[in-house]
Write a structure and sequence with these properties.
2 domains; eight-stranded mixed beta sheet; 15 strands; three-stranded antiparallel beta sheet; alpha/beta; 16 helices; 410 residues; pyruvate-formate lyase- activating enzyme
């Protein structure tokens, strides 16, 4: 049994670029044990009992209080989360662990949490590669909240042998497709995420997209293969297993096409190549196309890759906003974006986030933001992050870089 405590709402580690920067993981571990996993590794059964999971009563009290009243100040992570809830922005559920893996069969904690969000008719975006959401008690909750809930379901491949080797404890493709079809038939708002697309392994994507079309799926999301330059020994072993499964030399592929500048993501050229390919097939089958692997933000249907309704996301506050402003005006100034970011997040200490190892000079998130803005060569800077569509033009009177959009590259 896990210890249940707290409301479970946290600032995500990708708040600099994500329009849905508050998340929750119902379980602190995941039992699917996928080789490509970018989240926390599964821990032993003995250690699981020492980890925490959100408490429904605490979450209910938190939502009740802060939907009714706005925080007076915004200078700490907790106060930002209160403001975020008060403004009814979407919460991501299932970032590091899956809310519908085998733990849910035993404990049912996800159902308890979903009941709380349903009570408040609160917007969420839930991500899973499980099938339990297709059970009637879960479908009932999704139906009742279809205008504010988005269900994201992941598919990897149709080939069952490959699926068993890569997603060791995952459900079969047919079970997942059956669950997706049932959700769609119940008028649930579903987006299917294909991926990660790993060349030489899951090349049956067009067959999958044809199946999704037949199942009535309208929203399709692509996630490309990534390989962080900072892997644990266990993760290195997993990637070597992927290399053995692939029909191509993945190590050579990563060496040629993974960008250290972009923190292990595909190079800009390769990312655009795949994005255009998948978008074309999605359009062929009449599906809306979304992707998180679009540095210029020009190939997806929406500026947010999760296919969440625009009313439920944050706009004009993070680094991506710089790209949108520059597209409209031709150039973007630091204050065009930093004003909103600093108001919402600026005074949160970097020590409270995953960036606690940053330079001691970056005391608060506003320092981190300004550092990213004024260091175009940094992997977190605007040039590399957006595929060199934003280029430094000059320095303003306050010493901050003014960026111009590269119209030809765009």
């Amino acid at each position: 049994m896990f210890k249940r405590t707290g409301h479970g709402l946290n600032l995500t580690s990708i708040f600099l670029i994500c329009p849905i920067p508050v998340s929750m993981d119902v379980y602190p571990v995941c039992t699917f044990n996928c080789l490509y996993c970018f989240g926390k590794a599964s821990v032993s059964k003995k250690n699981r009992t020492q980890l925490n999971t959100p408490k429904p009563e605490t979450l209910d009290n938190f939502l009740t209080k802060h939907l009714a009243e706005a925080p007076k100040e915004l200078n700490q992570e907790e106060k930002f989360v209160k403001w975020y809830i008060h403004n009814r922005k979407a919460v991501q559920i299932g970032v590091v662990s899956d809310p519908f893996d085998f733990l849910e069969y035993k404990y049912g904690y996800t159902y308890d949490i979903l009941q709380v969000f349903s009570k408040h008719h609160y917007p969420i975006r839930l991500s899973t590669k499980g099938v339990l959401y297709a059970k009637n008690k879960y479908l009932k909750l999704f139906r009742e909240n279809r205008d504010v809930w988005k269900l994201g379901v992941s598919l990897f491949t149709k080939d069952e042998e490959t699926l068993t080797n890569v997603e060791k404890n995952g459900f079969s493709y047919n079970k997942r497709l059956k669950a997706i079809r049932k959700a769609v038939n119940n008028s649930i708002d579903v987006v299917v995420r294909f991926g990660p697309y790993i060349p030489g392994i899951n090349e049956d994507y067009e067959e999958i997209m044809a199946d999704l079309h037949d199942a009535g799926v309208k929203d399709f999301q692509l996630r490309n293969f990534e390989k962080s330059p900072f892997l644990t020994n266990a993760e290195k072993k997993n990637y070597e297993k992927l290399n053995q499964i692939s029909k191509i030399d993945l190590n050579k592929f990563c060496k040629n096409h993974m960008s250290k500048e972009r923190h292990g993501e595909l190079s800009y050229t390769k990312s655009v190549e795949y994005t255009k390919k998948f978008r074309k097939i999605a359009e062929k089958y009449g599906m809306n196309f979304y992707t998180q692997n679009d540095p210029a933000r020009v190939h997806g249907l929406s500026e947010n890759c999760c296919a969440v309704k625009e009313d439920f996301i944050l706009k004009d506050y993070n680094l991506c906003s710089a790209l949108f402003v520059a597209k409209e005006k031709g150039e973007v100034h630091y204050e065009d974006v930093a004003k909103n970011f600093n108001h919402l997040l600026g005074d949160i200490p970097t020590a409270n986030t995953c960036f606690f190892t940053e330079s001691k000079k970056l005391v608060h998130l506003k320092d981190l933001f300004q550092n990213a803005w004024n260091n175009p060569k940094s992997r977190r800077g605007l040039c590399k992050r957006f595929g060199y569509h934003l280029l430094p033009d000059r320095v303003d009177e306050n010493g901050n870089i003014v960026y111009k959009i590269d119209e030809k590259r765009l």
